[in-house]
């Protein structure tokens, strides 16, 4: 399974470069609400929240728009997505994006754009 992960023992400095890279890639603008990676505060430290490819989003999609590819990544078929937002509501990590100005949802596809953008090299793409 391919997924985005936070390297063990690494410290995020909350510079938001990963958030910027993701929202720019999907929506062509810097807007933290349009990023599939979020930085939260946990126990006084910044922590990147990423999609773990759990598949809960796929279980609620009544239109079959979310399917798992051969590498284990859940992908959204933009042609089948009706923009209902049920996938966003069920995401346990709050990293699935559905904004009012977009007709479809978006989620992490483990593309690595955020990994390349991180100056602290906190993120990585892993394959299990």
UniProtKB/TrEMBL annotation:
Organism superkingdom: Bacteria
Keywords: 4Fe-4S, Iron, Iron-sulfur, Metal-binding
InterPro entries: 4Fe4S_Fe-S-bd (IPR017896), 4Fe4S_Fe_S_CS (IPR017900), Fe-S_Ferredoxin (IPR050572)
Coiled coil: none
Pfam families cross-referenced by the UniProt entry: Fer4, Fer4_21, Fer4_4
4Fe-4S ferredoxin-type domain sequence ranges: 2-33, 42-71, 72-101, 105-128
Keyword Cytoplasm: no
Listed Gene3D superfamilies: 3.30.70.20
GO MF entry, a single one: 4 iron, 4 sulfur cluster binding
Keyword tRNA-binding: no
Cited PANTHER family: ADENYLYLSULFATE REDUCTASE, BETA SUBUNIT (PTHR43687), FERREDOXIN III (PTHR43687:SF1)
Protein name: 4Fe-4S binding protein
